[in-house]
Known about the structure:
The protein is of the alpha/beta class. Helices cover 52% and strands 16% of the residues. The strands form two sheets. The protein has a ten-stranded mixed beta sheet, with helices on both faces. A two-stranded antiparallel ribbon has the order 11-12.
Amino acid sequence: MTSSLEVGVGAARSVAPGRAGIQTDLLVPERDAADPELSIVIPACDEALTVGEFVDWCREGMAEAGILGEVLIVDSSTDATAQIAVDHGARVLRVPRRGLGQAYIDALPYIRGRYVLMGDADCTYDFRQLGAFVHQFRDGYEFVMGSRWKGSIEPGSMPWLHRHLGTPVTTWILNLLYGSTFSDIHCGMRGLTRDALMRMGLQSPSWEYASEMVLKSVHMRLRTTEVPVAFLKDREGRVSHHKRLGWLSPYQAAWINLRAMFVYGAEFFVYRPGIVLFALGLLITLPLSLGPITLGALHLSLYSMLLGMTLSLVGLQSFFLGCLAQVLHDYTGRARRRWLRVFPYSRTVLLCAVAFVGGVVMDTLLVAQWTSNGLKLQVDQAVYSAVTGLMLIMMSFMTFTFMLLLHAAALRTTSTYDSHE
């Protein structure tokens, strides 16, 4: 990496290529913190109206909390945002305009603090009250989420649709999928340790980074808490980013956030439902292996058995997908170790082979009967046993292929997990 250093008005300017050849400029103020404990990292785009006061708020909040920190503005503006921020004592990382989440990704190599606090540069979050975050960090929490619902929401600061539908509904969905207890998943003021942020490996380039961060904090089993924050309305003359992008922007943001929830929470849709379907399918299929059953007015025959076999196969496949989802989103190594113990290579191959051979034998008996009857099929006990045999063949193959994918995924996640140790 090559760099040059220029002296500007009130700041030193460092120029260096960023990730993947992306050019980034780092502006450093004259009175820069030498060894900050806290980094306040804020994406900004054309926030000249508020950024100066925002940096002042941050400095006031850090002084009140008794912590040495830095303000790092990740800027992609066309106005004077960068110069104003530097003049007020902030570092400014100039990056191309590539999305809100991407701004945080670009900022990672430049974050120096042990703790990282995020938010917006529009003075809608009161960073003069950041002491609550610092207190929780020093108490050992790794992820500290702000909550406007536990704090205060100034009249006119949030559209009715966001306040009464969008945020409450998506928060409820996330808590349902992940078994979490967040009260405000879209609060922009949030913090985490630098170590947790690095291990998290953010990938979302746009609005969905907020959900990705919350979801990964659950997968990573970070020690998490919430603190109340004050949410203020926009300053006179400022237009929010959603309004700048058009009326469709909030709906697009909601859609991509839901997509992130579903992708990172795929286990919810397949793991437990798969266990239920598999158990129900076996409960129907196995008793019918010896022939039809009559329970009072209920008569279970071949059609019922085929339904049971279908439920069993769909359930088993869903269960396997849920296991793989756990491994793919495993940051602690627990899921990987658990399923490798349950499905070791040699034992699984042996059991699959036994089940496959058993199924072939059961189906061979039906074929033998069919050929001895002049290729005429008679629906009797042999047909019911053959259905069970066919199910065993399919299940053995599904289990064998799942085991191979599990061990392949475990190898990949092991190298990924170990790289963050």
